[in-house]
Each structure stands twice: as structure tokens, then as C-alpha cells.
Task: structure prediction
Amino acid sequence: MRTAIIAIIIALSPLTILHGQTQVEMNQEAENQYINTSKKLNSVCQVILRKYANNKIFIKNAKIAQRKWIQFRDSQVAMKFPQRASPGYYGSVLPMCYFNYLTEITEDRIKQFTQYTIPWIEWGVSSGITCPSGEQTEANYMAKDKALNSVYQLILRKYTKDKIFIKALKDAQRKWIQFRDAQIAMNLSTRPSMGHDGRVLPMSKFYYLANLTEDRTKQLTQWTIPWVEGDVCGGTVGVFEEYVM
Result:
């Protein structure tokens, strides 16, 4: 039903020619934007590799984390557009929607990586930054993890009849967990001495785990909100079981 609605919207709206652009031109523009964003990510990666050149453990973990992120990125896109291989399923807007989502995910990755290009700020009195205890950061992470699990379970219930989506969702979540763990390993190896400090290690681990988990919760939350009519790039977002044919 939802696919039919989108097809009607595309047919009746000026989407195919918007602001003097044809759909083909908009598709190409979206692809070019993604290519430029991908180049920006690569540039940030190269800066990091140069800055941490003497930290072999970090470089190794950074490369692993990036490979895991690419796997997660691809599975996340497949989760939003699981029928991408089916000709005409999403209409002529699919290339634009596909590249726009790739750009969005890549921009998030650039934000994650950019923090490694700036000097580390020491926690403590001299910096004016209050250092939370390991117990506080662990409790905060546990709360974030519980919130993520609640959102994940809600999505499973809402889309229970959409077997294709559920399979893609579970795959994306598994890939995210693998990426998360690799990213934590990368983060904890920024300074070789970090692992030898019994106070800093758990605090840093749970602090970063909480941040990554909160980001994932925000990313998944959009699937708990009903589809907004006219959103031709929504993919599986908001397509609850009452819409699935």
C-alpha cells in the first residue's frame, strides 16, 4: 500500500522537475555530494594516520574500526532500503535517496573521527573538567544501553510482519555492535599508557560506550515514528505492519 502511495505522489507532484532539475540531475547531484563527503572522510582518516603514526596499536585498531564501520554502514543502508535490488520498487528517486542516506551516515562518521584530530584534554583540576568516577560512567552507560534495547524491541514489535526488514534490522544491529566494540578498542589505544591506569580505563570505556549507544538510539528511533505521507526517501522508516502488503 505504502509503495503505491509513493508512486502516486511521484506521479502527481513536481518531484521529477524541481527547481529546474530533472530527477536524473537530482540523482547525480546526490551522488556527487556523497562522493565529496566520502573524500572528506578519507582526508580526516589520513590526518589521523599521520598524527598517530608512532602508535602502532592505535593505527591497527583504527583500520579495524573503519572496516567494521563500512560493514555497518552498508547494512544500515540495506536496512532502510532492503528492496533496493528490486527494479522499480522505490521508484526513480531511489538513487537520490540512497546517496543522501550514505552522505548522512558518512557525515556522522566524520564527526566521530574529527575528535581524534584535535589535542587531548586531560581530565582533572588543571583543565577545569570534572572527572566522573568509573561507577558513574558505568551506570550512565547501562541506562543508555537499556534505552537502546527498549527502542530495538519496540521496532521488532512494530515491524513483526515485515520479515525482510526484520532480517535487515538484526543484521544491521549485529554489525553495529561489532563496529562499536572495534571503535572502543580504537579509542582506548589513543594513548599507550591509558590501559595501565586502573581508574582511567573503565571510566573512558563506559563514557565512550554511552556516547556511541546514545547515537545508535537516536538513529533507530526514527523507525518508531509513523511514516509521513510525502516522504519519498523514507524507505522502511515508519512502515509498520498495517502498511505491509
